[in-house]
DNA sequence: CTAGGTGATACTAATATAGCAACGATCATT
DNA sequence: AATGATCGTTGCTATATTAGTATCACCTAG
């Protein structure tokens, strides 16, 4: 984290936002003890934070007393969407990129995950690409790799300390080598090891970089350069 | 507010979220004292909350030390957008409504304001309609009126206690009469008193209602019914 | 120079929160 | 049925954490 810790940081707010984000990124309703385990926070505390969020309307309790997003989440989405301004600038540019016939995506890094604002395979309507995917482990995603490469090695080490790294079975050194390569090239090219044998090409945008733009599909080595050029132009336009 | 206050509500989180929302809905960078005045909270407290948000990356300080949205706001937008699911469901439906040739909008109520997720006049690309407008006073907006009408009169009275009500110079009784009419009809039709002599037709969506869909433009009395039908069908499709 | 604005921090009082223990539900297994 | 292991939730109390005052340095306008 770049900004310094201030004189009297509000710990309740820090934990509260963490709880809110954990709630938002959970695809299914979750209970407080479950969420507490994910966050490594005392479950009673998480319970009270969730109840506070429920009071604000941001969270809501289902019939079986688990928690999920409430109506206030729409409000928060509208407000943060406007404040961020990212989609407003990016969407027209992203639509332009779809002419290549590949999947086009825009995402941001959160901890060791990538959260997608836009993710549209060819064929679907562009308007269906919004808020379609929640989270993916950063190391399984081109956008994740390119955004991780913006961090110092130390920070990445800290992030994956004592943990398995998806897609990098040999561990942290293998990941750091990949990140070094990405820094050198200025873009990420990763192979998706599923049945479809896809490749992803991704670049970062913003200064400092806080979002990534990517195209994925069947992309042979020779086709990489023009796609990178197009992505860079798009990133430049978005990042303004 | 519907949900009960729990045993130990976290006041720091409540004020922190209020600060976050006030920051997000401010079109320009703001200082902590200025924001404190808007929120009616002690300025030192707001300052510390802002610094905490800055530490989290959600806020950011400009060169002149004012605060504005930071990179973390993108993350929050992506997460809440996904969690809310509202745009994902609504956008394709909203695009369909544009065939009428009017401005199409989707918004949510926040305090006495309406925050827009989508607002697209005819002619512009649909993708430009996202996050385009921040806040409007609820009483100046068709969506605002229809969402206010979902509240009890008491709550509306509380909201506008000791305050001017935009568009309702005669005060609270005039507003309540309008809301009663909206409840009876099941939709809002309001006249926009600007140079263009526009009308807005709006309905609510969701159960309980937490968003509004509207069309605005030059809409004569006789054309209202089919538009309301189309809006209701759209609201039904969105609200699930 | 003053006057009034800003953001930021040290200090101390007091309050709001953390964490323990416990309760009633619910569910699966015995 | 009985058991045991979950779950969400709350009362309680010590104490960590926050609120609010006073104060600072900085800036701009007059």
Beta-strand segment tally of chain A: 8
The largest chain-to-chain contact, stated as pair and per-chain residue counts, equals: A-B, 72 and 72 residues
Elements of chain A, N to C (H/E) = HHHEEHHEEEHHHEEEH
Task: Return residue spans of chain A where pLDDT drops below 50 for at least 5 consecutive residues.
Answer: none
The residue-averaged pLDDT of chain A reads 93
User: What is the percent of helical residues of chain A?
Assistant: 40-55%
Instruction: Quote the beta fraction of chain A.
Output: 15-25%
Radius of gyration of CA atoms of chain A, rounded to a whole number: 19 Å
Shape, principal axes of CA atoms of chain A: globular
Q: Tally the helices of chain A: what do you get?
A: 9
Quaternary structure type: homodimer
The span between the termini of chain A is 23 Å
Largest sheet of chain A: 6 strands, antiparallel
Comma- or semicolon-separated keywords:
homodimer; 44% helix; alpha+beta; DNA-binding; 8 strands; 240 residues; two-stranded antiparallel ribbon; 9 helices; six-stranded antiparallel β-sheet
């Amino acid at each position: 984290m770049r900004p310094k810790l201030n004189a009297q940081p509000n710990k309740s707010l820090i934990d509260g936002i963490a709880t809110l984000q954990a709630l938002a990124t959970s695809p299914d309703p979750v209970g407080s003890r479950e969420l507490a385990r994910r966050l490594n926070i005392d479950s009673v505390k998480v319970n009270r934070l969730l109840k506070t969020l429920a009071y604000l309307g941001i969270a809501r309790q289902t019939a079986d007393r688990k928690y999920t997003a409430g109506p206030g989440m729409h409000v928060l989405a509208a407000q943060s969407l406007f404040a961020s301004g990212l989609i407003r600038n990016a969407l027209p540019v992203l639509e332009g990129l779809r002419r290549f016939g590949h999947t086009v995506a825009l995402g941001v890094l959160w901890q060791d995950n990538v959260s997608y604002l836009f993710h549209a395979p060819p064929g679907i309507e562009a308007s269906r690409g919004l808020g379609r995917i929640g989270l993916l482990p950063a190391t399984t995603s081109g956008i994740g790799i390119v955004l991780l490469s913006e961090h110092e090695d130390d920070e990445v080490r800290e992030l994956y300390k004592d943990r398995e790294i998806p897609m990098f079975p040999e561990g942290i050194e293998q990941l750091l080598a990949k990140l070094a390569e990405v820094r050198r090239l200025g873009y990420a090219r990763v192979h998706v090891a599923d049945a479809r044998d896809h490749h992803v090409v991704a670049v970062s945008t913003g200064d400092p970089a806080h979002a990534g733009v990517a195209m994925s599909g069947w992309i042979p080595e020779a086709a990489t350069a023009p796609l990178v050029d197009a992505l860079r132009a798009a990133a430049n336009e978005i990042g303004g």
